[in-house]
Each structure stands twice: as C-alpha cells, then as structure tokens.
From TrEMBL:
It comes from Verticillium dahliae. The lineage of its organism: Eukaryota, Fungi, Dikarya, Ascomycota, Pezizomycotina. This is DUF3669 domain-containing protein.
Length: 69
C-alpha cells in the first residue's frame, strides 16, 4: 500500500502542481542503497520496507513523452 500511495501522490503532483500529463512515466522499485532505516534521498523521499521486498525505494523515470497541460 505505501508504494502505491507514493505513486498516486507523484501522479497527482505531476498533474496539479507541475502541470504535465505524466504520459508514459515509469515507476521503478529498486533496492535501497544501505543508508539505514528511515533514510531519505530528497525532501519527501522515503525508504519502504515491505516484507519480501526488503528495503526499497521508488524511482520515477522516462519523462520524454510528457506534455505541458
């Protein structure tokens, strides 16, 4: 649920604050870089810890098809 909520927040931010359509953006789960529990990568960043996946982060990639609204 936490990564899904983060994806929803990212899409809402792109739509309502950045004013881009988020066409073809990709969300990628990746292993955390061992910065310790609760480490952040950027303002608002978060390391997720969810059972089988262990500690991981969510990246948003591929903005080349995005257009301004």
């Amino acid at each position: 649920p936490a990564p899904a909520a983060a994806m929803a927040q990212a899409l809402a931010f792109m739509r309502w604050r950045a004013r881009v359509d988020a066409n073809d953006v990709e969300f990628v789960l990746a292993p955390a870089r061992g910065l310790g529990e609760g480490a952040t990568f950027a303002p608002g960043g978060k390391v997720f810890d969810q059972g089988l996946l262990g500690s991981h982060v969510l990246w948003v990639l591929d903005f080349d098809c995005c257009r301004k609204l």
